[in-house]
Recover the amino acids of this structure.
């Protein structure tokens, strides 16, 4: 099993990210029944696959279920690298 750091390094190579999620974001996910721990990092740099235009960063999903939750909740997020989207972690 990969650590969050290993997954984030593969998902967002060369981008600046943080494991610490904004408290309001974290609380909102939990309040809506989604435990985001271990499924997301906060990405600050903009890559080629960015949906978000915020200078404050955006959610960086590490699992498909996290990306689907963000999309359903209309939460801006950064798509992981294409190679990562084809990996077992993203698919699983």
């Amino acid at each position: 099993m990969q650590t969050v750091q290993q997954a984030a390094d593969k998902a967002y190579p060369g981008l600046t990210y943080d494991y610490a999620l904004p408290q309001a974001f974290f609380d909102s996910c939990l309040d809506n029944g989604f435990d985001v721990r271990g499924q997301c990092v906060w990405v600050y740099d903009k890559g080629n696959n960015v949906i978000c235009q915020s200078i404050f960063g955006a959610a960086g999903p590490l699992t498909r279920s996290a990306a689907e939750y963000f999309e359903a909740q209309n939460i801006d997020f950064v798509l992981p690298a294409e190679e990562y989207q084809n990996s077992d972690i993203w698919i699983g």
The mean pLDDT is 87.
